[in-house]
Amino acid sequence: MTISTTSTLRQHHQHCDELFSLMEKDVSDHNWIVGLKSFESFLQEMEDHFHCEEETLFPAFEAATGMAQGPTQVMRVEHAQMRNLMQQLREASTVQDEDAFIGAAETLLILMQQHNMKEENILYPMCDQHVSIDIGQQIRSAIPGKA
Predict the structure, then answer these.
(1) CA 69 to CA 67: how far, in whole Å?
(2) How far apart are CA 94 and CA 6, in angstroms?
(3) pLDDT tens digits, one per residue of 115-142
(4) Which of 30, 31, 113, 139 gives a 20 to 30 Å CA spacing to 133?
(5) Domains of the chain as residue ranges with CATH
(6) What is the Cα–Cα distance from 70 to 115, expressed in whole angstroms?
(7) Which pTM does this prediction carry?
């Protein structure tokens, strides 16, 4: 069986979703000490994911297709929106404001779900069709053991 260029990123979406759920549960249970550790793990994984896409996958797709203002641009804008929400989570966690944290987390969850659906159903299949498998190997190297 051939591994697709984007299979690691699809698996990493699931991993990030699991970390998000743990973080949200910890905070909902008023366990800020564990919640902050879960939050930091989630943030790091999300940044690793964004970086891999923005620095490896998207440029390769744009070079292969000539589409620099297409789906990759939409994904970059959504990454910025998610980073903004993650900053709101950081600010709420600093003062242990559960309501603000949960509110930002709910908004982030909706955005992540919509974003992942677009990537997995539209962008990733396009990447698998147009981007070389060598890029897939670079992606697997960029997210070792995390998917």
Answers:
(1) 6
(2) 35
(3) 999 999 999 999 999 987 666 677 777 7
(4) 113
(5) 7-142 (1.20.120.520)
(6) 15
(7) 0.89
